[in-house]
Amino acid sequence: MRFVRGLSIPVALLLVGSVVPPAAATRQDPRLTQVQAQVNALQVKAEAAAEEWNNARAQLAVSQTKVRALQARVAQARTSYASVSKDLGRLVGAMYRAGILDLDIQTLFANNPTEFLQQMAAVQQIGSSQVVTLKRIQARRLALAQAQSAVKAEQAIARRLTSEAAAHKAAADAALAKAAHILSGLQAAERARLAAIARARAAADARRAAQARRSMAKSLGSLSTRLKRVLSYALSKVGQRYVFGGAGPSTFDCSGLVMASYRQIGISLPHYARSQYSDTRRVSRGSLRPGDLVFFFGGGIQHVGIYIGGNRFVHAANYQDGVIVTSLSDPYWLMRTSGYGRVVN
User: Phi/psi at 98 (nearest 5 deg)?
Assistant: First the structure.
């Protein structure tokens, strides 16, 4: 297996080349049509798992940042409490000498300072200055306890997200490995035929990309400067490799390409297609304009691309095709369109 950014790419898939949508399989025999359908389904499953991996990793990064901040808060609270602990020791000594404390309560101070402080708050003989000292000590000990509790809670969240990310990664790897196993069972002649179809598809993709660039060069004048930068960046990446978790500058996955493209104008989008769907305003197909996002594969939202006009969109399609330009009317994608979104900032 070949490993890229933590997710493995089966060599058998790379050797066969691009797996084409079922619509392009009509010129093949039934066996190859079935194989392509199976591999397509596994590829979609792998991408869905990889998108969930992206989401878990993003949440984990946030959680780890919170853990570090909370640990700093614990250290600060511990230092603050330590600074008043000396006052507590002096206060206990003075109260014992004055006969306010008996030996049992003094032992409680050593074994359970929190309960000790609670009991001392009810002692009637202590003076007002001692009350102030006790309250200050209680507040700082409470702050330390709360900070320690918050760290433990966030560390538990981080552990859960780590496990989730590993599970999604394993699911993506398993789907790719299964697809590779299916392809490895083909005869040499069948693999050669698929490779030839892949080369023809790659050539067609290159022609579409070149046409899109020419068309964009003519139409960019009518777009805002910001949208020009987004679309120009995305189109400049046509032909680059697809890698799970990739967000540039030379490798991308679907949400990574969208995120990197909008990053060019200072707009921060999450590295997760479903969150990008949530963060955009719904538009209809009839009102699509360049720069809008196109989402695919049902309510789960497992794939995303950027509409470039002329009924086409640019997207990191899969790890065989890489970044390509595709027609929205392509039957494969048309049947799987989930909705459209406009980035509003």
Answer: -85, 0
240-260 pLDDT, tens digit per residue, is 888 889 998 999 999 999 999
17-33 burial, b at 16+ Cβ within 10 Å, e below that, comes to: bbbbbbebbeebeeebe
- Please give the DSSP secondary-structure letter assigned to residue 20: P
Q: Does the structure show a pLDDT above 50 at 20?
A: no
Radius of gyration, CA atoms only, the chain: 30
Instruction: Point out the residues that are catalytic.
Output: 254, 303, 315
How many angstroms separate the CA atoms of 24 and 18, rounded?
12
Alpha-helical (H) ranges within the chain are 11-16, 30-97, 103-111, 113-120, 128-184, 188-219, 225-236, 254-263, 273-278, 331-334
- What is the rounded distance in angstroms from the CA atom of residue 59 to the CA atom of residue 161? 7
Q: How far apart are CA 254 and CA 305, in angstroms?
A: 7
- CB atoms under 10 Å from CB of 334, counted, come to 12
Distance, in Å, from the CA atom of 32 to the CA atom of 191, rounded to the nearest integer, reads 9
Mean pLDDT of all residues in 305-321: 90
pTM given for the model:
0.71
